[in-house]
Amino acid sequence: MEKEIKNLREQFKKSLAALKTRKELLIIENEYTGRKGIVAQMLKRITSLTPEERPRAGQLLNQIKKEFQDALIKKEKEFSQEGCREEEYIDITFPGQNFIQGTIHPVELILKATEDIFLGMGFTIVDGPEIELDYYNFEALNIPKDHPARDVQDSFYVTPDILLRTQTSPMQVRTMENQSPPVRIISAGKCYRRDSIDNTHTPMFHQIEGLAVDEDISLADLKGVITEFCKQIFGKDRIIRFRPGYFPFVEPGAEVDVSCGLCHGKGCSSCGNSGWLEIMGAGMVHPHVLEMVGYDAEKYTGFAFGMGAERIAMLKYGINDIRLFFENDIRFLTQFK
Ligand code: DAH
Fold this sequence. Notes:
Elements: H1 2-18, H2 22-33, H3 38-45, H4 53-88, H5 106-120, E1 124-125, E2 131-133, H6 134-137, E3 157-159, E4 162-164, H7 170-178, E5 183-192, E6 204-214, H8 219-234, E7 240-244, E8 250-259, E9 276-285, H9 287-292, E10 301-308, H10 309-317, H11 330-333
Parallel strand pairs: 1-5
Antiparallel strand pairs: 2-4, 3-4, 5-6, 6-10, 7-8, 8-9, 9-10
Helix pairs in contact: 1-4, 2-4, 5-10
3,4-dihydroxyphenylalanine binds next to strand 9 and strand 10.
């Protein structure tokens, strides 16, 4: 067997020298040192040798196997260095690669713009939980268990007392519980309702809530603040109007409309011929809500408002289907820079 091993070494050297590609290297590796390769087969044959011959043959075979493996590793390294050199070659005259920069989501643009506008008017930003207690979402906002106002805000319930918030209004209560007047906050975030999906409804959407409580706050303050917001977000020529509206946690309550930017109030197809576009609910904080958080309702008054961020984005950018915000179509998203 010693002779055979000697020949094998010669044969291997020749094969190694003739080798040109990585692929060939793998074939040779398999052929010589693989599990069913020549060396393995010779090792098996040791049992047919005499007991005196066996140790020497075993030693030689293991030695040659190691030799082959080392040689193959060395060759592999040579290959990868050559490859590396090729890959590292930089042609500095070549035009640079295009860097694709993402764009900010239109809803995020509205949230940030709104926060900036209200920060400019002295409001501060607060954040609250999306998983909310029934108490904050409804009860403390004058919406007890049997109140019909719950019907239009069906939620996803975690337990009978814990739900995904249907509005950002619970942040009014959470803020007032932690702070005494004066209060001026806005709070934006996700809300959830068990609504069927159509071009104006999605089960998850964003709201922006505002609250101001102090001595002598009046409806005039609310009108002034909302007018300023509308002018900054939609344009200087816009005006607003208040229509009576019912929300259990404000009294009086109002639906706020902004004049249509296309027809300037004359009436066109985009505003349903009314000249106005509904943008938010608002009103003077109900004395009962103030009392529930321990505020003196004789001394303090306040206003509150709440709006859908998607709705504002739809009106500002002329989008007619809310689903577009959540389909993540890059052709839609990259239009908002
Ligand atoms: N949370 C109300 C809703 O989702 C909107 C709203 C109305 C918020 C009046 C207010 C408000 O703060 O004063 O329908």
